[in-house]
Amino acid sequence: MRAMGGAAAGQLGFVRGFTRYQWLVFFVVWAGWSLDATDFGLFSLVLRPALTELLGGQPTIAEIGRVGGLLSTIGLLGWAFGGFLFGIMAGRWGASSAARFTR
């Protein structure tokens, strides 16, 4: 057991070399990602009641799942294509110029 702990400590030893600034950047990026991902988590919580109202009547779980799946797919594809497109724009013209198009 002790040998396994030593091997794990050796594999993660690089973490001790991080500066205070690198830890700050890591936690700021982690917080940004967490807050950005929150909207998709909330989307899954309100999906059933929202689609029940939007579809009208008494939609089946299968109908809610189909429409909810389409909405989720469109959202994820939008994130992917937007990231790809604005990444290219930021590389070509700079991040601040690319960010102007998002407003």
Biggest sheet: strands, sense, closure? Answer: none
Order of helices and strands: HHHH
Structural class: mainly alpha
Specify Rg, calculated over alpha carbons: 22 Å
Number of domains: 1
Helix segment tally: 4
Summarize the amount of helix as a percent range: over 70%
Morphology: extended
List the helices and strands and how they pair.
Elements: H1 2-11, H2 20-55, H3 61-93, H4 95-100
Task: Describe the overall structure.
- This protein is mainly alpha-helical and 103 residues long.
- Helix content is 83%, strand content 0%.
- The chain is built from 4 helices and no strands.
- Helix 2 (20-55) packs antiparallel against helix 3 (61-93).
- The model has no long low-confidence stretch (mean pLDDT 86).
Q: What key attributes describe this structure?
A:
103 residues, mainly alpha, 4 helices, 0% strand
Entry summary:
With 103 residues, the chain is an all-alpha fold. The protein has four helices and no strands.
